[in-house]
Amino acid sequence: MLKQKAARAALDLITPKLTTSSIVGVGTGSTTNYFIDALAEIKHVFDAAVSSSEASADRLRGHGIHVLDLNATARVDVYVDGADEVNSARQLIKGGGAALTREKIVASAADEFICIVDESKVVDTLGAYPLPVEVIPMARSLVARGLVGLGGQPVWREGVVTDNGNWILDVHEFMVADPLAMEAAINNLAGVVCNGLFAVDAADTVLVAGAGGVNPLA
Ligand code: 5RP
């Protein structure tokens, strides 16, 4: 399983750097779930985890890993998470699991961001995967009109409520030529909480699992 191999490679990469005072940031999704399960093997090596979702926090606690609120720690040493798309600049689309806001917060707090993906996630241009945008519920239509103005086709992910009590719009037909500029433009729409472009907080390392093994994105 490629996702599992990427997760294992991340564990191998971070283990030598961890100390008993280290705080490990943990993302959300099926690839990250493999990482959480692997992390349990070395839970005595680091101090605690900070989680990007209630689901990951539950899984971490299920393994007996101490989960800290981000407000309770001055730093996060390393953050490990999956992605929906990755480009050659290590910029990402995230949020397929609706956890993008907390993911971006923990990624931003971390000294190092390691992204783990299988090779199907690597693209030339971000945007074939519909871009998730977390919105304040009362602003859903307003933000949707703003996203149309930016060139996209937003679709409400009906029935999904984020851990923060908000809603998700998925923006289709939205190839992103300039991720840094588009991340900022979407953030400027009133009612947007966060968008799934991780350009400011691009990954430091992307571990890509494929038929030839797991390799860092060049
Ligand atoms: C959740 C995310 C996930 O990292 C992304 O959706 C990838 O998920 P998976 O590892 O299940 O393919 O951003 O909000």
Commentary on this structure:
This protein has six helices and 14 strands. By secondary structure, the chain is an alpha/beta fold. The strands form three sheets. It has a seven-stranded mixed β-sheet with strand order 3-2-1-4-7-13-14, with helices on both faces. A hairpin with a 5-residue loop joins strand 5 and strand 6 (92-93). Helix 1 crosses helix 2 (30-39). It is globular. The two termini are 22 Å apart. The model has no long low-confidence stretch (mean pLDDT 98). Bound molecules: ribulose-5-phosphate (5RP). Ribulose-5-phosphate (5RP) binds next to helix 2 and helix 4.
Topology:
Blueprint: H1 2-14, E1 23-26, H2 30-39, E2 48-51, H3 54-62, E3 67-68, E4 78-81, E5 85-86, E6 92-93, H4 100-109, E7 113-118, E8 131-135, H5 140-149, E9 153-156, E10 167-172, H6 179-187, E11 192-195, E12 197-198, E13 205-210, E14 213-216
Parallel strand pairs: 1-2, 1-4, 2-3, 4-7, 7-13
Antiparallel strand pairs: 5-6, 6-12, 8-10, 8-11, 9-10, 13-14
Helix pairs in contact: 1-2
The chain binds ribulose-5-phosphate.
Ligand species: ribulose-5-phosphate
Q: Which strand order spans the largest sheet, edge to edge or round the barrel? A: 3-2-1-4-7-13-14
Oligomer: single chain
Number of helices: 6
Unreliably modeled segments: none
How do the SSEs run, as a string of H and E? HEHEHEEEEHEEHEEHEEEE
**Straight-line distance between termini:** 22 Å
Helix-strand makeup class: alpha/beta
Q: What's the main sheet like? A: 7 strands, mixed
DSSP E strands, number: 14
**Rg calc:** 17 Å
Give the averaged pLDDT, no decimals. Answer: 98
Task: Report the portion of residues in β strands.
Answer: 25-35%
Describe the global form.
Answer: globular
Q: Level of helix content?
A: 25-40%
